[in-house]
Amino acid sequence: MKTCEHDVSRYCDLPLVEPRKLAPNIDRNRESLVRYIEKKWVNHTVLHYYFMQDRSDLAGPPAQLQAVRDAFEEWKNLSLGLEFVEVNQAVDAEFRIGFAPGSSWSYVGRDCIDLVPNHEQQTMNFGWDLTSSYGRDTALHEIGHAMGFPHEHQNHKAGIVWNEAAVYANFAGSPNFWDAEQTYHNIIRKISPEDVAGSSWDKDSIMHYQFQAGLILQPSGYENRPLIPAPGLSDMDKQEARKFYPANNQIQWPELKPFLSHLLNIQPGEQLDFTIRPEQSRTYNIQTFGSMDTVIVLFEDDNGESIFLAGDDDSGTDYNSKIALRLINGRRYYLRLRLYSTGASGVGGLMLW
Length: 353
What we know:
Blueprint: H1 28-37, E1 46-51, H2 62-76, E2 83-86, E3 95-98, E4 105-106, H3 111-114, E5 124-125, H4 133-146, E6 161-162, H5 164-172, H6 180-188, E7 216-218, H7 235-244, E8 262-264, E9 271-276, E10 282-289, E11 293-302, E12 305-313, E13 322-327, E14 333-341, E15 348-352
GO molecular function: metalloendopeptidase activity; zinc ion binding
Domain Peptidase metallopeptidase: 37-187
């Protein structure tokens, strides 16, 4: 993560999370696409954040809260399809933010709800001052994780070859005091060992750590000098955020009607959105068909705000995404579908019944 001179050794410490289990003997390219996309939110999601001020061990002063609000606003000002809304109750928030001293971290993307469903538990922490240049980058960095973006220095396309002994020794000391597992998880580990249609290495990414001289053996040029990213969001950060979360608010979404299938012919990472207006109140089934890896998420329109109702993710498995839920006549719902990868045919279908 980017730092200033006086804070060069303080780093984001991601929670240790076991990789999601996929089907045995899964195709390597398919696995890579799933890993690249799996933690991203579906676009047009309203994400709520809550400051855990009711707990003395997690409360922060007003200036720190405002720095986080400003960082959310900076991401939003990229004209993204995501919304960030501050709420007054933890139960309403996907992101629950504390200010316990010592370490800054966040769960990555959908892990915030998949792994931390208890609304009394935090999903993000800021352990140092956010009003400095370093602190502002810290806030942007952790929110980037919450949006689903991993550490950039762990991008396998970076081609970084570590002086592993030096890396482990450096992070075992002050002020991090990481054990070998933490250092491996946050530094040495590659996000994906396979070739994936992701971005090339961005050494200036907000998601990149700064590294002092002596830790990197390759690429050439960093053996004897530090790697210091430029401050703020890089051009590639902005490009990647807009790629996964495009604004396109004025697109007319097709309507899902009972027993009428929709052809799904999109590329990995792309998303389709549908509107559902039930003509009678009953339990409906929504399911994908074909050999595609998808995630589907159902929202209800509540006076212009999309409220999450249910979702299913079939990526890396041999079944199809399916939601069964009672829908009410007179209300409007949105079904959002993100594609991970396609089967041999490259197409699939979606049906409501």
